[in-house]
Specification:
This protein is α/β, with parallel strands linked by helices and about 325 residues long. The chain contains 14 helices and 5 strands. A hairpin with a 2-residue loop joins strand 4 and strand 5. This is Tetratricopeptide repeat protein.
């Protein structure tokens, strides 16, 4: 997904006087308990996997001591695979001033809904038990650092939360920046277009890359994602779903809902709908559904188990 402008617009709620007072008390208690417990956590504990069962203890409670950044991701999401390593590296470099909680949306749909996640990767923060959106989509490391700086400043100024003490230089050294690999100028232009929400420009840039390198995986995934985003842009989700429910044989209506499902991370729903559409349609309508399904396979990747299963279902529907 393309990144939205990073902002701290949600911090207005964090300025409540009562919440600030409570958060400062919790932070002091947490620091006291940490000192009694024998010191700072290991660098590896700055990045944790969280699920619905551990969310309260690992995120809500820890947010009284340190800002907790949440990375909503999925195994099939290629932009997630680009963003997550950067978030992990930057988190370690901040040496305890932030923590990173990674949440697999496929396994934790309730948390995804509670945060109002519309697409992934999506990044939120929790400070003193209060959530705020940070950004959506893959983003450059420099931009991520800027957002982390603002988050740390808000946590300290509003709540007196200064992070985990004593994690120190070891974590920062462990996560030293890797040597930068020169960017492909065409792919860089495509990413820049996505950053500025210029979807037609991104689509053209990816097509240009594929015209020179038809097998370039990054360009294939990027093109499929950009085209998906362009199709769902401006859709009235409620009306689109109503139209599809009212006219189950309307292939165009079913394609729109499948796109919405995919953009929202509901991969199996999107695949299942398109396979069913292939089964009950014929001629040009059937071909349109088949091609759309193949396009969505590109977004996920050929090796994903859901793609493998859907390919089998498609073959059975066709033959």
């Amino acid at each position: 997904m393309q990144p939205r402008n990073m902002s701290m617009s949600g911090v207005v709620d964090l300025a409540a006087v009562k919440a600030a007072g409570e958060a400062k008390q919790k932070a002091e208690q947490a620091r006291a308990q940490s000192a009694e417990g024998g010191g700072a956590p290991a660098p590896s504990s700055l990045v944790i996997d969280v699920d619905e069962a551990s969310f309260e203890a690992d995120v809500l409670q820890r947010s009284a001591e340190v800002p907790v950044v949440i990375d909503f991701w999925a195994e099939w999401c290629e932009p997630c695979k680009q963003l997550s390593p950067v978030l992990e590296r930057v988190t370690k470099q901040y040496a305890g001033r932030v923590m990173l909680a990674k949440i697999d949306v496929d396994q934790n749909q309730m948390l995804m809904q509670q945060f109002g996640v519309q697409g992934i990767p999506a990044v939120f923060a929790v400070v003193a038990g209060q959530a705020l959106p940070l950004f959506q989509g893959a983003a450059p490391e420099e931009q991520i650092r800027g957002t982390f700086d603002q988050l740390v400043q808000v946590a300290e100024q509003r709540f007196g939360i200064t992070g985990l003490q004593g994690v120190g230089e070891e974590a920062a050294e462990e996560a030293a920046p890797e040597p930068e690999v020169p960017e492909d100028p065409v792919l860089a232009a495509a990413q820049q277009a996505l950053d500025s929400n210029d979807l037609p420009g991104a689509i053209q840039a990816y097509r240009n890359k594929l015209s020179d390198e038809p097998a370039n995986v990054e360009a294939k995934v990027g093109l499929a994602m950009a085209e998906l985003l362009q199709r769902v842009q401006g859709m009235d989700a409620r009306q689109v779903r109503k139209d599809a429910a009212d006219a189950p044989t309307d292939v165009a209506a079913q394609l729109k809902v499948a796109d919405l499902d995919m953009a929202g991370g509901h991969v199996e729903d999107a695949f299942g709908r398109l396979v069913e559409t292939v089964q009950r349609s014929s001629g040009e309508d059937r071909e349109a559904a088949r091609l759309r399904l193949l396009e969505l396979f590109e977004v996920i990747g050929a090796e994903d188990a859901r793609v493998v299963a859907a390919r089998g279902a498609l073959a059975r529907a066709l033959f």
